[in-house]
Structure formats: structure tokens, C-alpha cells
Amino acid sequence: MLSKNIINVSLNQFIRNFSAVSLPESHLQLKNTCRNFAKKELKPIAQKLDKEHLFPKEQIRKLGTLGLMGILVSKEYGGSDMNSLALSVAVEELARGCGGTGAIVSIHNGLYAALLNKYGTAEQKRQFLPSFVDGSSIGSFALSEPESGSDAANLSTTATPVTDGWLLNGTKSWVTSAYEAKAVIVIALADKNKGHRGTNAYIIPIPTKGLTIGQKEDKLGIRASSTCSIFLENVHVTTDNLLGKEGDGFKIAMSSIDCGRIGVASLGLGIAQASLDCAIEYANARKAFGGSLLKLQAVQQRIARMALQLESARLLTWKAAMLRDDNQPFIKAASMAKLSASEAATAISHNCIQILGGMGYVTNMPAERYYRDARITEIFGGPSDIQLLVIAEQTAKEYGYKTR
Known about the structure:
Blueprint (H helix, E strand, L loop, with lengths): L3 H16 L5 H18 L3 H7 L4 H9 L18 H14 L1 H21 L2 H7 L1 H4 L5 E4 L15 E5 L2 E12 L6 E7 L9 E7 L5 E3 L13 E11 L4 E2 L5 H37 L1 E2 L2 E2 L4 H29 L5 H26 L10 H9 L8 H15 L6
Helix pairs in contact: 2-5, 5-6, 5-9, 5-10, 6-9, 9-10, 9-11, 9-12, 10-11, 11-12, 11-13
């Protein structure tokens, strides 16, 4: 007979497992709110945003009024004070309507607002959160460099100490929303003798003397979000700009990357779900061989695999988000989620085009846009090759071994 303690442990474990497939009521309400917003506000203009590379300024403002630009920010500074699972749910539903908008919301929340909320001083939060949370301003995060993408410990952007602070010099690449941003978090090397322990994080308003925003990259997908380089030439910052403590830069960067991978996974889920929606709706309406395409076994098999990949990736993503919310180790789970969801987005959008046939290849149908949007999810936040290394390293670590 099981002891009472074992029964309690088993019940708690059951509740935890059950929650992985049944969202709390608050999150279901959030999901419905975001789904309705995406359907009414994003889906009708997604093609125009993509084709003309337009930033969805009005839609971002409305998302701010709904509390979706400060999901991880405390209510004291205007945020919603929710959790990573909530952000994942929101990003997926918004990306279902527009991948570019989903990327904007994900990166602003996870790599800007959340970092300010966690590491910022009271004064920094007062200056750099309220207007960013209400949707009137956008924040950005600058870590990658021309010679340092996934190798975040090998930075060339320097922060040279001076009497009253530091002078920042270098180039940051692939900065999402840099063109529209009113502030940026920059990771720079202040003491190369200390290696990654010599890096600092700085919060810098835009515009600032010596900081220049490069031209927008002409990208394959998620074109509603801008991607630019940032050039720093003797940008003067003081301790008022220092985010966290001296030497915290690498730690802040790594925490943002792990959180960001859940965001990328959520973005991939939204694109994948939109692709599945499109494929099923078209297959049901398209008549061939005496009936709808949906009645063909070959099409059914494609749809079955698409649904399997999507649901598997979603569960991995929710697991990673819940582990983070529960202050449990989540590095491995985040990489698994990111790898699974990004590959699912590419595969499902590919199969969507296959089901649509020639109509999947033309721009007046959304299938080709989903395919283009999906590709970046396997690249930013660390490409698939990096995720495999992280997963292997963390798995070996669980056995007490090292991979390097």
C-alpha cells in the first residue's frame, strides 16, 4: 500500500504533468485575446507588412494597451507581471497572424523589458520601462557582432574605462527593431584580461551621440520587424547606464539567450500553426479527383505528420517555459524546444506549400510567406547546430560527464 507521502508526491506530479497540456484559466483568456487580436488586427495586413517591410506601429501601440508589451514586467512599472508561459502563449498566437509582429513582441519582451525589470535600478526602470510597456516605444538588445554570433564570449565591442564611466566602441549586428528603438541594451567587453567575466551590460537611450543605426537589412522573412547594425564610436556611458553590476554582462547575455530560445520556439509554433491552418482550409476547399484534397490519403498523411510535429514542439516549449517559471534548470529544455519548434515550422510550412501546389508558390497566398518566415527560427537564438551541442552537453552533464 502506498504511503500518504508517496500519494501526495504522485498527485503533485500528476498535477504538474496535467498542467503541461491544460493551460490555466488566465492563460486561456490570454490565448483567446491574442488569437482574436491576430485575426482582426494582424492577419488582414500581414501580407502588406511583409511586402512593404512596414513596422506595425499602430498594432504595437494597441498591444501595449492590452498589456502585451510588458508581460514579464512588474505592475509597478506598468507591466502585466505574468510569466514565461504567458509570453510563449502570446507570441505563438500573434505570430499565427503575422510572424514579423510575433518576433517584435517576443524580443522586446524577453530580451529588453524582462532584462530591465530583473537587473535595472529603480531609476533605470522609471526611465526605460513605462513608455516601452505601454506600446509607445520599442526596446532592442545588441549582443551579436560581425565576427561573433553564437560565440558570445568572443566580443570585440569594447567599453574603455574613463574618469566618469566608459567609452563604447564597436559594431553590433542583427539587432531586431533597432531602426524603431528608443533604447538598446549593449553587451561590451570592459576588461579582456578577465575574459567573459570582464563584460558589462549597458542601457543606452536612442538617439545618443556616437551611436549610429545602420540601414535595414533586406531579409527573406519576418519583414515587419527591422534588423540593423548599430555602430558605436566613443559612446560615453556612466554608471547610470550600467545594467546590473560590473562583470555581469556575460551572465545577463546568457540568461537572455536561454529565455530568447523559448521565444523563438513560440514564434516557430505560431508560424507552424498558421501553415497547418492554411493547408487544411485549402485542402478542404480544393476539389480534385472527384472530391476535396482532404479526402486523399496522401494529403491526410502529410497533415498527420504536420499535426504531430506541431503538438510535440508545443509541449516541449511549454515545458521549457514552465521550468523557467518554476526556477528550475531549463537550458536543455529551452534548446530542445527551440530546435523542435524551428524545425517543425520549416517542415510544416514546406508541406503547406506542397499541399497547395502551384497556389503555394504565389504571393497572393500566405503559404510562401510562412515558409520564408519559418527559416529564421532555425538561425537566430543560435542555429540548430548550436542547440544540438547544448542538448548534448546538458545531457552528458546529467550523467556526470563533460563534452569539452
